[in-house]
């Protein structure tokens, strides 16, 4: 007979070990379809590793791909800590991107010291505003935020497509549905010369450090953790639930909005309907792999980005579809969730 006994407290070594074992299991399971497809498993994974970080170009491409994942992963991690299940980072990313283009494409004139902060602020406010609606509906009316945030993704994407055919459309775009370009003065500076890696990566690192300090060293962080553990007990202890949840919602949506700004003001320079390759949804995987810990979001995002970037190289060389990356990421999420069971409980066989 198998029994699960709750642990009083899990050690850091156990938590880290369980995460690493879960990721190793995910790659081992992904080897099965690779072998079934006739690909050499060891060489395929080596090619994936080389494609993700074997050269300076590959490494910078991985970090570039990780940049929006850091911000959307952090957005999910912060919200989930308060049991506010924000599935709408994809829509908040597009809302932030639209706000960044509206401000940075000529609405305001000035130098980089003025325009770059304005673009980032506009994007953060747009993402925060979008998340506040589901937050209020959850706290006041008990509406499931998973449903509202998920459905808002499709609404915002349709609004973005409408704006690209209307007010934000570039008159010089040759008929393509894209926005006016962001001014050079409003663009995030590159980090490595002649590479695509930009200042958004440093913004993501800074956001993770600030979020860690906020969650562990501030009154608001204590309130967020208390509400996440037990909202009823937190309210009984005098913690204001609505202001705390509004702060969490604004912070989560703002971070996702910054991901949109980093893509248009750091990478592409303009907005298109295919700006995001599912960064908002992949951010949820990043948050879960990181155990909802802000500082762990960075390596988790780099890992997920490395899988996607490396899978392209592997695909071209061994002739296997790069959709194997989606499979690995999905397996990683499932394995991490299962590993959490062994972190929280001891398994006893009687």
From TrEMBL:
Keywords: Cell membrane, Membrane, Transmembrane, Transmembrane helix. The keyword Metal-binding does not apply. GO terms for molecular function: transmembrane transporter activity. The chain crosses the membrane at residues 62-80, 92-108, 114-134, 146-164, 197-215, 236-259, 279-311, 323-343. The keyword Transmembrane helix applies. It is found in: Cell membrane. One of its GO terms (cellular component) is plasma membrane. It is a multi-pass membrane protein. It holds the Pfam family BPD_transp_2. This is ABC transporter permease. It comes from Salinarimonas soli.
